[in-house]
Structure formats: C-alpha cells, structure tokens
Amino acid sequence: MASNPTQKNIEKTERRELLSGHSLSDVFNNLIEEVSPLLEPFGHHLPEQVANLASRVARYSWKTAVGILENSHHIIDRVGFDGLEKISLLSTRVARHCWTTAVGMIDNSPGLIDKLLKYGDQKLVMRVFDLSIDISQYSWKTAVRMLESSPAIIDRIGFDGLEKISGIGIRIAPHCWLTAVSNFEKSPVLIDKLLEYGNEDLVMKVYGVAGRTSRHSWQMTVCLLENSPDLIDRIGSDGLEMIADFGCKIARHSWLSAVDMLEKSPHLIDRMLIYGDPCLVMNVYGLCSQMADQCWRTAIHLLDKSPDLIDRVGYDGFEKIADRASELNRLNHERAISFINGESFESSVFIDAITDGLELSKVKPILANYLNALLNYRIEIAESSGHSTDGRRIYLPGKICDFEDKQKNFTIYKVFATHEEAHLEYGSFDFSLSKIQDVVDHIKATYGDEK
User: CA-CA distance, 86 to 113, in Å (whole number)?
Assistant: First the structure.
C-alpha cells in the first residue's frame, strides 16, 4: 500500500536530518536503491545516470543531492532527464550560497513545471529553466525569483515577454540583486496596469524600451518601468519612447539626473497639457532631446522651464527660445542656461522681441474712458516702467507681454489702472499736514484725553 503524502514528508525530513550525522554515504546509497525502481520505467540506464548526477551535486551539498534523488522520478516524468540535468545545474549554483533555498526550489519544481505546461510543451519549460540558469550567473536569488514569477508573466505576455524581462533582470542583478528580484515580483501587477492602455504588443514595446535604457542605466530603467503607466496614460507609448531616448542621453553623464527627469515628467506633462495636446508635449521633449546632443544640463533646464515659457510666449515662442539657447550653447553652456532661466538681460530683451504683447498706446483711449467713468473726471495716463500715480496722472507700462493672448494683457492693464484709481477715489492724496490738529481734537473728543 502506497504511503500518503504526509508520511512521505515525514520520511524526507527524517532522511535530511540523518544527513547532518556521519552516515552520509549510507543514506545516499539507500536512497538510490529506493528510487531506482521508480526510474527504470523511463529507461534502464536512468538509475545510474541519476545517481551520477546526484553524486556531482553532492560535492557542493549533500542535502541538495538528496532533494534531486527524491524528486527525480517526478521531474523526469514531466521533462525527461535533460530537464533534471538543468534543474540540477541551477540547484548546484544556488546551493553554493544557500542549500535550503536549493532544496526548496527542487521540491517545488514538479508543481512549477505543471503550471508552465499549461502554456506550452516541454520545450517551453526547458527554455524557462535555461533563462534562470543564465540569470544565476549574476544572482542566484534573482534566478530563483524569476522561476517563481514565470507562470504569472507567461500567462500575461508569453515566453517572449518573460525573455525581455529576464534580459532586464540580467542587467540589473550584477548591481543590485534586491532591485532585480523586486522587478520580477512587481512585473505581473505592472503588466496588468499596462494592459489597461493596450494589448500585449504595447506591454512588449514598454519592456523593449526598458531593455534599451538598461544598457545606459539600470536605475533609470527601474524608474521608467515604475512611471510607464502614468506616462502612457498622458502621452501614449510613443511619448514614453521619446522620453526614454531623452533619458538615455542624460544617463550617459548622470543617471541621477535621468531618474530625476523621469520622476518629474508626469507633473511637467500635466502642466504642458494645459496649453496643448500630447503632440505639443512630444514636440517639447523632442526639442529637449536635440538640445541634449549639445549639452545635457541645458536640455534639463529647458525641459524644467518649458511650461512657464509656453505660458508666456506660446509654443512657437518656445521654439525660438530653444533655437537661441542652442546658438548660445556653442558659445557657453552657462550662458545658455542663464538665458533659459530668464536670469540675463539678453533673455528679457529676446522674450520682449518675440512677444507681440499689447502696447499702451493702442488701449490708452479705452482706459481713459474707463477711468473717467470711475472718477467722474478726466485724468491723464502716462507711460512708465511700472504702474503708479502721483495724484495728477496714472502711470502704466508702455507694453505688457505677460500673455500671448492680447485680451489677457488688456485685463492686466485694467487691473493696474483700477488699483491706481482706487488711491484717487478713496482719498490717498487728500491728506494735509494742516488738518492734523483737527484730527487730534476729534480723537480726544471721542475717546478722551488719556495717554
């Protein structure tokens, strides 16, 4: 009568406890005799082949070798002796660092293989283990986690998708195995989010873009993947690709700056979308990417300032500013950055020149009638650098260029004029020193003479 699963687990535990004693070879040989009848139906030479395979594994870990023997007939039944060989190679690499993980991986292999066989044949299973073996050269922990995540990833985007993600993992693992492990753990959830914006092709495109960026900076790749749903939601996968290409140019010089650019992009895009559609956003990133070919620092400043500049001079004006900054870059990078940030006189003059704005002379008659209606008398309007009044005239700027829209600039003129009119209407200039005593006497009469 066959023993039940619980009894088998008890036997496994007892056997592995014996391996910590002095009877290693006896336990090992007894186990070979025990599993040989189970292996013979798959081939007369298999018991000997499995025994030799387990002996090689035993050089690194006796307990891992026992795990291979105990699970050998289950694994061979599913993927043949070649499959057992691959699992043995992987478990040997893992056992050099942690035998408990190696044994656990072997024990879970039959169940994992059954899951994978739902999505393909033995070839697919073997390819998955090949991927894990490749990753194990860089990080055994990442290799194990990839195996655990593989059915969920294949279920969503097939083996090709798993292959792309594994390629990224191989680039991350030598630098930070924790991040590589996390990348596999988070992949199913990330894929589900991306599938809300498209099909499997879109997901594959995202991971393809991420794979290219990983050649320049693994940190930027992780950040790109984390932000990919938000970026695609705003400007689509083509926009994501453009931002990634821009980030690669920055990452060649500073991965920190590339990551910072990616993290700020969703907010920057939201600000840009106030002034246009996703095409405008992509054009902005395209201009900044061109700038990065000259100077990556100037390109970052141009991107950071883009919403403010577009608000002030429109996209056409922004293009002119970018062209001028490009010219200045050839002379001096710091001068170009100062120009973009509006910190130089040259910047002020240039923006005034490219902005149509609204001149005081064109709206002076309208403002004069407006002020006459408020004051019930005529007051002179004069041109100045700012807005003020001396009681006899109201001074206003000769030109307002705050907005591309002339109506908005006219509104600013009205606000300035109304502010100065209020000084006249409510008596700011009626004060006279000769009236001070009258005011003092009135206060004393009302509140008393106490100090």
Answer: 13
Nearest to 325 by CA among 313, 341, 310: 341
**Helix (H) / strand (E) containing 388:** strand 388-389
CA dihedral over 270, 271, 277, 282, signed as positive or negative: negative
* Integer Cα distance of 169 and 286 in angstroms: 29
The structure tokens listed for 207 are 């991971």
- Residue 168 reports pLDDT greater than 60: yes
Whole-angstrom distance, CA of residue 170 vs CA of residue 180: 8
Q: What is the mean pLDDT of residues 431-435?
A: 55
Residue 25: domain span: 1-116
| Secondary structure of residue 289 in the 3-state scheme | helix
Tokens of 240: 């994501």
Q: Is 329 inside a domain boundary?
A: yes
For position 244, what pLDDT does the model report? 97
Domains in the chain, number:
3
DSSP 41: G
Contacts of 436 (CB under 8 A, 6+ apart): none
Q: Is the pLDDT of residue 435 over 70?
A: no
Q: Which two tokens stand for residue 65?
A: 């070798």
- The percent helix, strand, coil of the chain (3-state, each to 5) is 80, 5, 20
> pTM value?
0.74
